[in-house]
Amino acid sequence: MPVSAIPSPRPPIAIPNTAQEVLGEAEHDALCAEITALLRAEDAVLVAHYYTSPEIQALADATGGHVSDSLDMARFGHDHAASTLVVAGVRFMGETAKILNPEKRVLMPDLAAECSLDLGCPADEFSTFCDAHPDRTVVVYANTSAAVKARADWMVTSGSALDVVNHLKDRGEKILWAPDRYLGDYVQNETGADMLLWNGACVVHEEFKGEELHALRRAHPEARVLVHPESPRAVIEQADYVGSTSGLINEVRMARATEFIVATDRGIFHKMREAAPGKVLIEAPTAGRSATCQSCAACPWMAMNGLRKLRDALRDGRNTIEVPAAVAARARRPIARLLDFAAARRQEVYGNNDA
Ligand code: 13P
Ligand code: SF4
């Protein structure tokens, strides 16, 4: 039988009050031109997450960079020849890039771009938790600090968690999982693995509401429901498709449906509209912009990535990600293990590593 024991309740996370950068057309165009020239001059490439602004995503695409989920961001940065990686996303994404590429310079527009899952899993408390359960394989989500990864056997992302946990379960291993309790609960339900869960949550996905989603589905009976697995069980249970950000975009592109209810950060709509221009996309309900909704389908840390800050970081060589060598050496193992595992899976499924 699966085991689910959650350590003590975690203190609430302080959520910054960030607004996305708003630029006039002239300033936007001038910044894009300046950043494009700087990228070239600095031998740099821009790697962005789907939750960043449409302007950042468009610039990454236009300059030969990449927009993707957290697994693919790591892979792209690792494979690319540029000596500087500019990571537009949140801090753990920059750290992962640095850990995999210690010889490269990794810059971010704003080093204060954190993640509630990372903040909710301090390395010292996590280490004590691991020490108390030495019989378990430690599996951590990508959304963690370098120091937490250094304590792990495996790192997973939303796109790889089911495969990895199934693989470990088949080997008879019991799992200690951190930090997202909703993703952990979903993986446990899907795989039947024996998992002990840390008590973290994403402040964005946690806001999606099951009852309100029922009502929205009644109003849109033909809509296909797409859910990121950081969402609560009451929301996941109503999904037609559960997956990583890349998986959700692919679903909009490939599914026959023309209407979709989407439970994840609304930044993803930019790529979904590009992927399937004629399709109707509806935000899954949160508590609305009321006092009880702290971050209504918009990650406050992702919003810290603006073009001005990106230009400043590149121009001034600011906001460099540094990871102590000893921590990086230990953290590289679980990340490399995932990349090797994912590459082997692609080889099995597609017969090559290009897919
Ligand atoms: P993905 O790996 O699916 O892009 O998820 C990252 C994330 O932070 C979702 O909130
Ligand atoms: Fe972290 Fe949630 Fe923001 Fe993703 S959306 S970066 S999990 S706080």
Bound molecules: 1,3-dihydroxyacetonephosphate, iron/sulfur cluster
Largest sheet: 4 strands, parallel
Order of strands across the biggest sheet? 2-1-3-4
**Into which percentage range does the β-strand content fall?**
5-15%
Helix content: 40-55%
Q: What would you call the shape?
A: globular
Count of individual beta strands: 12
SS field, number of helical segments: 15
Write up what this structure looks like.
The chain is of the alpha/beta class and 355 residues long. The chain contains 15 helices and 12 strands. Strands 2-1-3-4 form a 4-stranded parallel β-sheet, with helices on both faces. The longest helix is centred in the C-terminal third of the chain and has 26 residues, at 325-350. It binds 1,3-dihydroxyacetonephosphate and iron/sulfur cluster. Residues 69-71, 143, 157-159, 202, 228, 230, 244-245 line the site of 1,3-dihydroxyacetonephosphate (13P).
